[in-house]
Specification:
- The complex is a heterodimer of chains A (about 250) and B (about 475).
- Chain A is α/β, with parallel strands linked by helices and about 250 residues long.
- Chain A has helices at about 45-50, 80-90, 105-115, 120-135, 150-160, 180-195, 205-215, 230-235, 240-245; strands at about 5-15, 20-30, 35-40, 60-65, 70, 90-95, 170, 200-205, 215-220, 225-230.
- Chain A has one domain: Rossmann fold, CATH 3.40.50.
- In chain A, strand 7, helix 6 and strand 8 form a beta-alpha-beta unit.
- Chain A is globular and about 50 Å long.
- Chain B has three domains: about 20-115 and about 210-255, Periplasmic binding protein-like II (D-Maltodextrin-Binding Protein, domain 2), CATH 3.40.190.10; about 120-205, Periplasmic binding protein-like II (D-Maltodextrin-Binding Protein, domain 2, 3-Layer(aba) Sandwich), CATH 3.40.190.10; about 275-480, MetI-like (MetI-like fold), CATH 1.10.3720.
- Classes of the chains: A alpha/beta (about 250), B alpha/beta (about 475).
- The interface of A and B includes residues 84, 92, 98, 146 and 164 of A.
Chain lengths: ~250, ~475
């Protein structure tokens, strides 16, 4: 892995409940780049993304991420320190937000800086305020998540992940749980991050968005990469039947 | 609801008050006599060789009396402290169970001539400095049975703290363990339960009294019949034979022949006084303090248990599961007994400490289950989100999972607090005078259960009602947060 590579995945294999969910996946992401992973439901997109911070363990291959290596058979208990170190460097945004309901928006964002990085409260609060401002929610800092719309909650979740200043941000279908009219505000934030040079891997169904924001696109089908390339190559001139089916082309 | 209960109580009191007790006994063919087998040997107790049989010198007396009346004796088990109100309710015809003739009792029920004369025997530890009478025990704790003549004597001696027990073994255990300076009880009990312990010795006798058979006041025919039958037993030596067989005969008993004397006695003169109210408030304070400390222990202990079960190894998990099953699966009353008396030789807890610890350890098992349910109600996504931020498992538990689980568990905890408040009445078995115990003591004093009972209930409600309001509000507040 050279200096510019933030994520490198080799021969990644995951077997869950007797099924091969991932069957040898390779890719890498350079610093400042955005990789979009697209594919039909059940193709292994989410499993792949969750392998990158080991929330879902993998059974074969190797992941190098943010300067550390993940191997098959690691354990939450035994390898707790390494996993914690990696997860500090790798942000994650979930499909259904998973905000902490007992904390305010600002509380959610400052939680990890405060208690994982050990920042003093004033410093952590300032960082939270700046990030909420960046996702357009400066005026909602002191409200609890259940009073926010889905789009607002997801923007808080993005701010929360960014608060750790991650080397790479993983987004797992960030707009799939949203009312269609709220999708735009979240995608706008992600596009803004991309423009700012944030390294990201985003699993998405929003093909138009992927075409506009991603530097590279990977098409996953039945646990393998069916096709890869720039958005223009993959999405405008698909070579495989899997991609054409995904794009609704004949 | 309360009014309904009162109506039923008053109605029952009146229906029981019929003046044909002897005729009813004959119609039934049995003389029903009330006693408590917990009083132990030699009164009326389970035959150690055949647990289905009740034996004792009072069983023999009851059989002989019934035979002389042309009836069959029928034993009715009843808690010793409530023998008098149960008699008044009509649960049985007579009381025959070491019931001492006292002015307070004579004001409520009628007595036959005595069938046994006893002395109050003061027992101390063998190594105790010279103690000859109650005056030597100023500022000390002296154990006895609630509702007994000995308790009246202790109560009337200034500077002595009377500690109340419900069984005859327990005061002597506590005396051996140093929790008491002395025990004052009838000589029968002292001889059989106290002086059999090598560490204890007799310090002297303090007053004397007599056991007689109690009969409802409005049944003079039954009273006369039973009294004459007893006189017959004294005259022809049958009572002496029975007492000799149970090794109870001594010189004092030769005066038993004296006829029944119905002296002039105060009737219904006892009222609830300000002193009673003050004692009630003090007992309420004890209930509040014990419940609050026990609940604090339970909340903290339950938390430790649930953390050990979630994060501990296989052994820790098995230990927690065992703890919870044992403490939830056995009565608190039993746990209090074991903690206070059973472990007395290795762990000498004060009654207050044992009360708080016993209730707290028991409720900790319930709180642990509430936390578990609370923790399980928190979506796994919460843990994943925390881990993905680089939080450790311990930090995730402390900052993310437990605060949410605690909110889920909070209404249940408030409900448990209400239950604990009421369960705290059980600690009276280990000599702590809390609200319910104060009620039973006052009931004996004022010769009635209704007013002390209503007062006691009112005080419990005053404590639990705000808590139940709080529990309901917490439940409501929780609903939108989880939605």
């Amino acid at each position: 892995m050279n200096d510019g590579t933030v994520v490198s995945v080799q021969a990644l294999h995951t077997r869950l409940g007797g099924t091969d969910v991932l069957r040898g996946v390779d890719f890498s992401v350079e610093r400042g780049q955005v990789l979009a992973i697209v594919g039909p439901s059940g193709s292994g997109k989410t499993t792949l993304l969750r392998a990158l911070n080991y929330l879902t363990p993998f059974t074969g291959g190797e992941v190098a991420i943010a300067g550390y290596r993940l191997r098959p058979g690691m354990s939450e208990r035994r390898d707790a320190t390494l996993l914690r170190t990696i997860r500090r460097r790798v942000g994650m945004v979930f499909q259904s937000f998973h905000l902490f309901p007992h904390m305010t928006a600002a509380g959610n964002v400052m939680e990890a800086p405060r208690h994982v990085l050990g920042l003093d409260p004033a410093h952590a609060r300032a960082r939270a305020a700046a990030l909420l401002e960046r996702v357009g929610l400066a005026s909602h800092a002191d409200v609890h998540p259940h009073t926010l719309s889905g789009g607002q909650q997801q923007r808080v979740a993005i701010a929360r992940a960014l608060a750790m200043e991650p080397d790479v941000l993983l987004l797992d279908e960030p707009t799939s749980a949203l009312d269609p009219r709220l999708v735009g505000e979240v995608l706008a934030v992600v596009a803004d991050l991309a423009a700012g040079g944030q390294t990201m891997i985003i699993v998405t169904h929003e093909i138009t968005f992927a075409r506009r924001v991603a530097h590279h696109v990977v098409v996953l089908a039945e646990g393998s990469i069916a096709e890869r390339g720039t958005p223009a190559e993959v999405l405008d001139r698909p070579r495989t039947a899997a991609t054409r089916a995904l794009l609704g082309m004949p | 609801m309360l009014a309904l209960v009162l109506c039923v109580l008053i109605y029952r009191a009146h229906t029981a008050a019929a003046d044909d007790g002897l005729a009813r006994a004959h119609a039934r063919g049995t003389l029903r006599w009330g006693a408590d087998i917990q009083g132990g040997e030699p009164y009326a107790f389970q035959d150690p060789h055949d647990r289905t049989r009740i034996i004792g010198f009072e069983v023999d007396i009851a059989d002989a009396l019934a035979r002389r009346l042309g009836l069959r004796a029928e034993f009715v088990q009843n808690d010793w402290l409530t023998l008098v109100p149960s008699l008044e309710r009509g649960d049985f015809d007579v009381i025959l169970n070491g019931l001492e003739v006292t002015p307070a009792r004579r004001a409520r029920i009628a007595f036959t001539r005595p069938y046994y004369r006893f002395t109050e025997t003061l027992v101390v530890r063998g190594d105790a400095p010279a103690v000859h009478g109650l005056t030597d025990l100023h500022g000390q704790r002296v154990g006895t049975l609630g509702g007994s003549l000995a308790f009246d004597l202790l109560k009337d001696t200034p500077g002595i703290e009377a500690v109340l027990y419900e069984g005859v073994e327990e005061p002597y255990i506590d005396l051996e363990e140093g929790r008491l300076a002395a025990v004052l009880l009838d000589n029968i009990i002292a001889t059989r339960y106290g002086l059999t312990r090598p560490a204890l010795r007799m310090a002297g006798t303090v007053g004397e009294g007599a056991y007689a058979i109690g009969v409802r006041r409005d049944e003079p025919d039954l009273l006369r019949a039973v009294d004459l039958a007893l006189a017959g037993m004294i005259d022809d030596g049958e009572l002496r034979t029975i007492l000799t067989r149970w090794q109870l005969w001594d010189e004092r008993q030769s005066t038993l022949g004296a006829a029944l004397t119905l002296g002039t006695e105060p009737v219904g003169g006892a009222h609830l006084t300000l002193t009673h109210i003050a004692l009630f408030l003090r007992a309420t304070g004890f209930t509040v303090v014990i419940s609050t400390l026990a609940m604090a222990l339970a909340v903290a202990g339950g938390l430790l248990l649930s953390i050990a079960r979630r994060s501990g190894g296989r052994c820790a998990r098995a230990a927690v599961a065992t703890y919870i099953e044992v403490f939830r699966g056995t009565p608190v009353l039993l746990q209090l007994y074991v903690l206070y008396y059973g472990l007395a030789s290795v762990l000498r807890l004060s009654a207050f400490t044992a009360a708080v610890a016993g209730l707290g350890l028991n409720y900790a098992a319930y709180e642990a289950e509430l936390y578990r349910a609370g923790i399980e109600a928190i979506p796994v996504g919460q843990t994943e989100a925390a881990l993905s931020l680089g939080m450790s498992h311990a930090l995730t538990l402390r900052r993310i999972v437990l605060p949410q689980a605690f909110r889920v568990a909070l209404p249940g905890i408030a409900n448990d607090f209400i239950a604990l408040l009421k369960d705290s009445s059980l600690v009276s078995v280990i000599t702590v005078v809390e609200l319910t115990k104060q009620m039973t003591i006052t009931a004996v004093d004022v010769r009635g259960w209704l007013i002390p009972g209503v007062l006691c209930a009112t005080l419990y409600l005053a404590l639990s009602y705000p808590l139940s309001r709080l529990a309901r509000r917490l439940e409501q507040r929780l609903t939108p947060a989880t939605a």
